[in-house]
């Protein structure tokens, strides 16, 4: 069984000082770097997703004439209205400066269609269009993913659920994840939902040994 490490959205806007900063988001970067060093030693591929929105993205509250952090509907799907974040080619969309990006084997960008949000690194929220991630993993004969990153209750959760639905085995590294927690229990519930769907839950320490 061939594994890959999948780092979800370790970008400036989800870290301290960012537009959609997640509490303790920066704490995931050290863990990502430790995991990547282990991957190099074990010849395990590393892939990363990047939230990559056009400035006119309709998930942005300002573009949908509403207030950030409230909930509405976009394209027939429930939608949290977000502050402007991860705009293509802007500093907020860059990977965290401490992340050792030279170790990345593949980067998948998502959220590029302004009319629909895309939490999962595999599909947009309506499952209308696939990214290149599945093709890349299939070509590399990878069947198991270690997943960690930001945010637990959005992009990590939906990436893991899509991975499981496509037949990948998944291990979520909980210490490498942090959540938005619009409701305080959202991240815990997201972990439970991933487990219920078949994900294993572990920590970086348990993997690194
Ligand atoms: C994310 C909200 C909006 C995430 C992306 O990476 O979890 N959350 N866009
Ligand atoms: Zn986004």
Automatic annotation (TrEMBL):
It holds the Pfam family Isochorismatase. Pathway: Cofactor biosynthesis; nicotinate biosynthesis; nicotinate from nicotinamide: step 1/1. Keywords: Hydrolase, Metal-binding, Pyridine nucleotide biosynthesis. It comes from the Bacteria. The keyword Metal-binding applies. One of its GO terms (molecular function) is nicotinamidase activity. It is an enzyme of class 3 (hydrolase). Residues 3-205 form the Isochorismatase-like domain. Its EC number is 3.5.1.19. The keyword Lipid metabolism does not apply. Belongs to the isochorismatase family. NCBIfam families: PRK11609.1. This is nicotinamidase. It comes from Rahnella inusitata. The lineage of its organism: Bacteria, Pseudomonadati, Pseudomonadota, Gammaproteobacteria, Enterobacterales.
